[in-house]
Amino acid sequence: MKITIVNTSDIRGGAAIAAFRLFKVIHEKFPGTRMLAREKLSLTMNVRGLNNTFWQRFFIKFRFVLEAISFIYRSKSREDWFAFSTACTGQNISHLPEIRDADLIHLHWINSGFLSLKNISEIADTGKPVVWTLHDMWAFTGGCHYSGSCINYLENCGNCLFLKSPGSKDLSYRIHREKQKLWASANISFIAVSYWMAECARKSSLAGSSRIVVIPNPIDTEVYKPADKATIRDELGLPQSTFLILAGAANLQDKRKGFVYLMEALRQMKETIPEIGRSFGLITFGKASNIDNSPVEYYPQSYLKDDYAIARLYQAADVFVLPTLEDNLPGTVMESLACGTPVVAFNVGGIPDMIDHKTTGYLAELKNVSDLIEGINWVKSHPMIQQVEENCRKKVVENFSNEVVAAKYIDFYRSLIQ
Question: How far apart are CA 262 and CA 167, in angstroms?
Answer without folding.
Answer: 36
